[in-house]
Amino acid sequence: MKLLEDKRGVVRVIEAFLASMLLMSCLAMIPAQPNLHDSTGNLASTAQNVLLSLDSNGHLATLVDNRDWTNLKNSIESALPLTVWFNLTVFDENMHVLNNFPICNGGAVSNSVVSVDYVCASQNSVYTIYILRLQLSQVGST
Amino acid sequence: MKNRNFKRHNSGQVIVITALMVALVLLSTAIFVVETEKDVPTGGSDTNNVFSAYEQAARSTLISGLANVTNGGNPSVLTTDLNELDSLIASHSYESILQMSFTPLNEASYQNGIWISWSTDGKGISSAYVTLYVNSTGASSTSTLEYAVNVTSQADLSGNYLQLNGTLNQVNLTVNVLNEGKPALAQNFTFYYEDGASSAENWTQVTSPSVTDFGNGTYAVSFDAQTQQPGDPLLASMHCQDQRGILVDANVTCNNLE
Questions:
Q1: Which residues are CB-contacts of A8 (< 8 A; sequence separation ≥ 6)?
Q2: Do A125 and B45 make contact, defined as CB atoms within 8 angstroms?
Q3: Which of residues 3-62 of A touch B (CB under 8 A)?
Q4: Distance (Å, rounded) from C-alpha B107 to C-alpha B69?
Q5: Do B37 and A81 touch (CB under 8 A)?
Q6: What sign has the CA pseudo-torsion B201, B206, B212, B213?
Q7: Which helix (H) or strand (E) holds B121?
Q8: A131 in Cβ contact with B92 (< 8 Å)
Q9: Euclidean distance between CA atoms B59 and B148, whole angstroms
Q10: How far is A141 from B108, CA to CA, in rounded Å?
Q11: Per-residue pLDDT tens for B135-157?
């Protein structure tokens, strides 16, 4: 009750309110980024881009060559937005699954799942070709 | 002067702390929004992305084939690998009918897409070159791509030597490693030297050379070499494997600094 009766903090309340308004206006000025993941086509393009960028210097094939599934999962996770679910399956050229545990970031978040197959050639002198199947799903898509 | 007692003026503190907490919540929300809106690298339309993937696969195949051939493999391995890639890509093209062909370069110094020049003037080149042709016919459009893929590893070797004591010499070499004409790092080196006055070819492997890596594809190498007679010319040889596993050899006649 003493706090309610005390009127000496009114100026500070106004200051706090003005500070909050200033913060809100700053946030409103952040330019809205275009949402590239709102359609199936864009999600497929995103999957292709992620695999292509990771494979640009042979990094992707090296991870598969070394069966380094943990770093492969981390690489894909860091390249995708948080709101996108993924599941990666690595096959050899005869379509036998190579990864012995799921490379994904949880359970599927939507019924609409996009799947992209990516042919990845090893730069190792012992030539090997892998098929990487990346499945993506956007949170909120139907 | 009247002293103010700050302890008694504490009525707005709860509000100020609350405002700070609200600001923290707003900031963390802003960070979350930025993180969730994070874009992945963009590369144009789907067709362009698929073609870029084919180019990347062809480049990796060339690197693998060249690494194999320069380390003693059969030169036909490149054609075999490209055919394997061709059939696998064609069998995994679900949205379009794909026609793909690779044409290894057979001009100038290239034979079946491979050129290996490990010369005695200090320049070593290992290169592979193919032209990739892709024709993709989909439900609504037809796209064609013709693209030259070139993988070249080069090492330039130069050197001199200083007579230390009788037949003992200090050899100083400079190595420049290039990938596609740009400075690149080496994975490992092996050095040899030979007495140039000796009639028989008798290369001696350098056991523990001092190698200084300047981090920009340039390496300074120093080691001691023994000749049969004082003042005999010295030849140096290098086996250089770059980070991609491609081997490049080069030989050079060292200059006597005296």
A1: B9, B11, B12
A2: no
A3: 3, 6, 8-9, 11-13, 15-17, 19-20, 23-24, 27, 30, 33, 35-36, 41, 44-46, 48-53, 55-56, 58, 61
A4: 19
A5: yes
A6: positive
A7: none
A8: yes
A9: 10
A10: 56
A11: 888 777 788 888 899 999 999 99
Percent of chain B's residues with pLDDT above 90 = 50
Contact in structure between A45 and B45 (CB atoms under 8 Å): yes
CB-based burial, B173-211: b 16+ in 10 Å, e otherwise: bbbbbbbeeeebebeebebbbbbeeeeeeeeeebeebeb
Phi, psi of B162 (to 5 degrees): -125, 125
Task: Name the architecture of domain A40-138.
Answer: 2-Layer Sandwich (3.30)
Instruction: Say whether A58 and B40 touch across the interface (CB within 8 A).
Output: no
DSSP A72-88: HHHHHHHHS-TTEEEEE
- The interface predicted TM-score (ipTM) is 0.72
pTM: 0.76
Residues A13-19: what's their mean pLDDT? 79
Helices (H) and strands (E) in chain B, counts: 3, 13
**pLDDT score for A128:** 93
Q: Could you report the per-residue pLDDT of B52-103, keeping only the tens digit for each?
A: 888 899 999 999 999 999 999 998 999 999 999 988 888 877 667 788 889 9
- Number of cross-chain residue pairs from A and B with Cβ atoms under 8 Å apart: 145
